[in-house]
Amino acid sequence: MAGLVPAIRDFRRDTQKVVEARPKGRHDGGMEAALLPLLAWLSPAFPTGAFAYSHGLEWAFEAGDLRDESALRKWIGTLLTNGAGRNDAIFFVAAHRAAAAEDWGALAATNELALALPPAAELRLETAQQGRSFLEAVLAAWPAPLLSRLAPAFAEIAYPVAVGLAAAAHRIPCEPATAALVFAFAQNLVSAAVRLGIVGQTAGSRILAGLAPVAAAIGAAVQTATLDDLGGATLRADLAALRHETQYSRLFRS
After folding, report:
1. What pTM does this model have?
2. Are the CB atoms for 170 and 142 separated by under 8 Å?
3. Could you tell me which of 150, 79, 155 has the C-alpha nearest to residue 112?
């Protein structure tokens, strides 16, 4: 015990030296500025309530559309490239860009469109509830001046807009954060599928491994996109979300 106190003192001294040696005001995508907040914010453990939503996946399983790993991989992959995954990425980039420029009008317009675009009432609930929960959690644990100034103006905020605002407020680079957002969307769907019994955990991990390059490609591709590039071709998934609202027995809210 006698040797423990000096060891702790030395550790604190050495750590302080490292902190003081870092360039002041550096926010260029380093470990602390980018990776660690994203790992926390987009984790299933972050209190957004994402576990309660399946994005229509539950009805698709009930209807027989999703019976194996291959079908689930194609369903989620299509949502990423031609549906909500890509649209969320575009909204994220637009929100990140507007917040970084402190362009309130552009940020408000992005949020208004993001809340209007979901084709089903419960999909709108999904993005609005998660957006509000995300923003409140970040404000409580990761406060930032820009975030504190802009957040109170939103009575409702869509999830990708909330994440874009927070990422810009903390100077997290846009492209890796976009890819992380898309991949987190896939993770939530795979988690729902595992709980529904569509696939097991190992198969779910294989699906995510296969979708990681897709998420990265989307993250890169949408960096030059605008709100005019929004769109989708996932009619069966949209129908699943609409039908899920009146499904007799269900585990999820969407």
Report:
1. 0.86
2. yes
3. 155
Mean pLDDT of 108-112: 98
For the packed helices 69-82 and 235-244, what is the interaxial angle rounded to 10 degrees? 100
Task: Report CA-CA distances (Å) from 121 to 39, 69, 243.
Answer: 29, 28, 11
Alpha-carbon distance of 144 to 204, in angstroms, equals: 36
- pLDDT in the model for residue 34: 62
Helix axis angle for 159-169 and 174-196, nearest 10°, is 140
How many degrees, rounded to 5, is the angle at CA 36 between CA 32 and CA 41? Answer: 135
Evaluate whether 250 touches 241 at the Cβ level (below 8 Å): no
How far apart, in Å, are the Cα atoms of 243 and each of 89, 238, 240, 249? 25, 9, 5, 12
Helix, strand, coil abundance in the chain, percent, nearest 5: 70, 0, 30
How does pLDDT run across 96-109, given as a tens digit for each residue? 999 999 999 999 99
For residues 190 and 208, the answer to whether their CB atoms sit within 8 Å is yes
Q: Which amino acid is at 218?
A: I
